[in-house]
Amino acid sequence: MERQILIGGEAGQGIAKAAEILGKAFVREGFYVFNYRDYPSLIRGGHNFNVLRISDEPIMSHEFEGHDIVIALNDDTIVKHAAEMKENAVIFAPNRVNAEKKISVDTDAIIKELNVPRIMENTILIAAAWKRFGMPFETLEKTIREELKSNEAAVTAARKGYDAVDAGHAIEVKPAKKARYFISGSQAVALGAIAAGIDLYIAYPMTPATPVLHYLAALQTKYDYQVIQLENEIGVANAALGASYAGAMTMVGTSGGGFALMGEAMSMQGMSEVPLVAYLAMRNAPSTGIPTYTGQGDLKMAVNIGHGEYPKVVVAPGDPREAFERTIEAFYLAYKYRVLSIIVSDKHLAESTYTIDDFSPRVKPKRFIIDHVPDDYKSYEITETGVSPRAVPGQADVPVRATSYEHDEYGYTREEGEWAIKMNDKRFRKVKYIAEEIDKLEPVSVYGSGDKVIVSWGSTKGAIMDAIKRLNGWKFVQVSYIEPFPVDQFMDAVKDADRIVLVENDVTGLLGDIIAEKTGMVIEEKILRYDARPFTPEYIIRRL
Predict the structure, then answer these.
(1) Residue 361 CB: number of other CB atoms within 10 A?
(2) Residue 513 CA to its chain's centroid (Å)
(3) Is pLDDT above 90 for 325?
């Protein structure tokens, strides 16, 4: 069983919140829901819409067509989406909206009667659509109370909308109710950071990374950490290194333009070996691009950020479950090996909402600070693994140094060539041990079976997973760790393939370039989408 609902209107009409409430209510009734959000970079006006795809089986994507129900808060929604509706689609709209096959709801009368704000029109309409599906009002009421902080006026308005229409074509499938998460990629990253033991999150707002900043800020008192917004991303990255040097488990977050500004500080991380976690939420680029839409064009910037050569970890989750688990892994690897860990997401993963059954973290991060600091402590002691024992200032009556200059084991500046060789060799010895750790974390995942293979990474996972259900003889190879690249696991996953197709949300196939660089294998067939919109299952199937 699948149904698709589109909710459309202007920015400021509460489109996203209405979709969130309706989606969560369906999850409470036992369904799987995927919620896609589409909006321009405007605070008021423009055209906003959300697409909710509902199923009794796991689902991870939406389609841009095939809507069963359209909830239209303005005429523009009808005009823009008329060609996408199913032939028997039903439209719920206020009396003022012009549309055929419309079920009118006199929202003006309800708003006037209850003396409530105009924005509650969205609540009235989703309640009417909820009844059309034959769903109990109690579930919707519980969700509204939770999401709108027990707003009695909103509950009453929803009741009026529910009672204003007749029951329609009820969904006959009644899946078993089970506690599940209805969660966005941003929320999952934030919760992963909390689970990892974060002390400090520093950021400057930039779409689509900002939701992590907001979500962590809202929970900081409850979970005893601090969130700080600084003046720009240069300040963010440098302050974060200072905080981590002092012992705090620290994370920064931004999008492409802000990440570019962090580049010099990221390079300083490589030299200073002060552990740091960075969240990069990509959007359409270059430059300002289309700032509220998606793209995967920053992959190579993540792999190569900063001047010079230094080891780092780059991990790219494909859904909120992975976003939670990979964020925890990023903290673990950053602090155990004193490196930079970069979590790469994008607008589609960050701002879409998925139904997730559970989470299963593989590691438990900690600060990896030594308990006893020797009198002859060396901040950059040369070890077999390349990882120097980590102390923090104030632990003992010995200096703990961090420097951006090349140095000796004590952290004193050295310019002799032999020290440049010794310290570069020390830093890069970590890579072998990081790669061994990553091999235990399923850096390459294989879904489905067949001798034809789709290779991809990141948020494309959802549409590919839903597409291969309808494709015979295809499997999906997902690369989650980009740096260090899991060469052996990747080659093992594709070794028997008769056909390999690369799927990416960028112009040139950036993962394909990295695969060629790391393995020598050139993937010739590519399905690349760079119109700032995410993949859908139908798009992939049609292109294949």
Answers:
(1) 16
(2) 23
(3) yes
Segment 515-524 long-range contacts (CB within 8 Å, at least 24 positions apart):
515/455, 515/479, 515/485, 515/490, 518/485, 518/487, 519/485, 519/487, 519/490, 519/491, 521/491, 521/494, 523/455
Residue 211, pLDDT above cutoff 80: yes
* Domains of the chain in sequence order: 2-163 (3.40.920.10), 182-356 (3.40.50.970), 444-543 (3.40.50.920)
Q: Please name which of 10, 321, 337 lies closest in space to residue 181, comparing C-alpha atoms.
A: 321
Cα separation, 358 vs 321, whole angstroms: 7
Distance CA 365, CA 193 (A): 10
Q: Which amino acid is at 317?
A: P
pTM over 0.90: yes
pLDDT tens profile 237-289: 999 999 999 999 999 999 999 999 999 999 999 999 999 999 999 999 999 99
Distance (Å, rounded) from C-alpha 454 to C-alpha 468?
A: 9
For residues 402 and 272, is the Cβ–Cβ distance under 8 A?
Answer: yes
Parallel/antiparallel/unpaired status of strands 481-483 and 312-315: antiparallel
Can you say how many angstroms the Cα of residue 497 is from the centroid of all Cα atoms in its chain?
Answer: 30
| C-alpha–C-alpha distance, residues 478 and 465, integer Å | 10
Strand partners of residue 166: none
Q: What is d(CA 211, CA 352) in angstroms, rounded to the nearest whole number?
A: 11
Q: Which residue has the tokens 């970079």?
A: 41
Q: What are the strands, taking DSSP E only, across 188-315?
A: 200-203, 226-229, 250-254, 276-282, 312-315
Give the containing element (helix H, strand E) for 76: helix 75-81
The C-alpha atoms of residue 146 and residue 178 are separated, in whole angstroms, by 18
What does the alpha-carbon distance between residue 412 and residue 420 come to, in Å, rounded to a whole number?
Answer: 13
Single-letter amino acid, residue 91:
I
Q: Are 317 and 343 in contact (CB under 8 A)?
A: yes
